[in-house]
Structures are given as structure tokens and as C-alpha cells.
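Hey, resending since the last one bounced:
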Amino acid sequence: MTLRTTALLCAGTTLIAIASSAAALQAGPADRAHEGNEALVRTFNNVSRDTAWTQTATIDLDFETYHPQAMEVVGNRIYVSSVEIIKAPVPYPEPRNGYDRTPGKGIGHLFILNRAGRLLKDIVIADGHRYHPGGLDYDGKFLWLPVAEYRPNSSADIYRINPRTHAVKKLFTVPDHIGGVVHDQETGRLVGQSWGSRRFYDWTLNGNQKRFWLNNNHFIDYQDCEYVAFRKTLCSGIAELPAQPGAATAYELGGFAMIGLRTRRILHEVPMQLWSTAGHVITRNPTDLDLDADGRDLTLYAAPDDSDEAAGTQILVYEAEVTPLS
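The C-alpha cells again:
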């Protein structure tokens, strides 16, 4: 594992961010959620297509990461969910019992890393056909994670993980593929999105569905979401668009969106066209967006590549100084 930085100044900035995040762990979850996330909301609302993102570090992961899905950077730890595909689902010629493909076979993983990218623990989470972990959220106390069948309109288990003891608890099962969940810290409920994020659900912690709504945004499909203050969730993802004439592969359009959980509306969204070693847009898979100690700069962590691509999975670190939109 190596940590390459583009300049000593960038390395120093990264170390400051690490120290600040570690210090934040000493504060209570409520303080961290209200103070840090309110500032994050304000700063993200000023991000635009003109915001300059500078890559400050690359963390190479030298273990088998498979197909990473989501990420949370918390203090001196990095949590990454990933799916190991043993037998890929195969499309049916015609739908069978509401499914468009076979269930396939696989193993779900929650990797715990240190800041240098060294694997500290691999928590295996799967139950029969439900082996596909999705978007990951951290509320200051617990990690929240869905593990679904690897096919749309199927089923998913919703889990709560204690990052200190590594205890895993299955809370409930829902009759749809859930690609990600966030813990709404004001209502105490969980909000999840379906395959392609076309549907949203709102459940109590025992699985009682309180609300359901369709996603009226078709800019991108959300891959990884995190809860932020004032009943908002910040999501990243991609849309694979048809190849333009002369191009050999589809075009990956990436981006971020701030969504109001109360209003169910997009509050602010921006495209993100930065590219990985394997040529993927960096919001293809896991991301985490944090606010630096100065309350103005954003740090973006992204791991868009699979372990069998190009240089393998790398955590790319970017920073941006955000100024108010005029």
C-alpha cells in the first residue's frame, strides 16, 4: 500500500483533515451531526460545474476488493461495502415470477481499513440470494447497510453495524432491491432507494413502511448516499448514456445531488466529470464527501474501480475550495 501525494502542502492538508476527523470522534453524535452537517449543506450548495477539484492523494488497496459499492470515512477508519460475485446473474429470455434474471451467487463484504488503506477486518454479510451490499450511512454511532439480491424488484435485508464492536444486527427484510439506506436522525427512521434509485421508501427501525415515493429526477441513478442535517441526504451516482458516434463504449455521466427528505425534491445538484485510472467517472461506486476544519473546503473520497481493473481499487482523494455562488 502506498499513499502518494502531489505536494507537501497537500500532504499537510490531508493530515490536518485526518486529525480534525479524529478529534470530531470525541464529540457526541448529535453535536457532530448538527454542527458539521449544517456547514456541509451550506458549502455543498455553493458547488458548481466551475468548482475546481484538485487530487491530493491516491490510496492503493492491495487486497481483493471485488466490486466496491459504498464508503464512509470516519476518524482514522475507512468503511467500504463490496460485493464478491461468485456466479453472475444471467438474464432470462422472458421474466419469470417477476424477475428478469437468475439470482446468481456471491458474498457481501464490509471492509474496515485504516487511513493508509490497510485492511483491518472483513465482515461478511449475506443471507442466501441476498449478498449485494449497497449504500452505507454513518450516524455518529452506527453504520446502516442494505444487503439485497443482485437483481431489481427482488428483496433486501437492512442491517445495523456497530463500528466499535463489529456486531451486526439484521433489522428487517423488504420486498424490493434496496441499493442504499440513510438514517434520518430527526425522525429516527430509515430511508432507502430501490435499484436505480427509481423508488424511495421510509421505514421505522422495525420495518414498518411509513412513506413511499417515486424519484422524479432522471439525471443520475444514486449509488451512495449519506444523511446530512435538516432532513437531507447527499447522494452520488452515475448514468450510463449511449455511446456518441465514433465512441466504442457508453458514456458515464457522474454527479451529486442534495435531496430533501421532507419535500422529496432535489435541492442542489452538480455533475462530476473526474476520471479514474480505469477510465470510470469517480462517482461510479463509493464516495464520501466531508467538510474540512476551515468550514469552506471539501474533501472528496472516491473508489470507482474494481479490483480486477487497471491498477485495482484506489481511493482517490480530492479537495476543493468552495466560494459562494454569485
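The chain has two helices and 24 strands.

Sorry for the duplicate.
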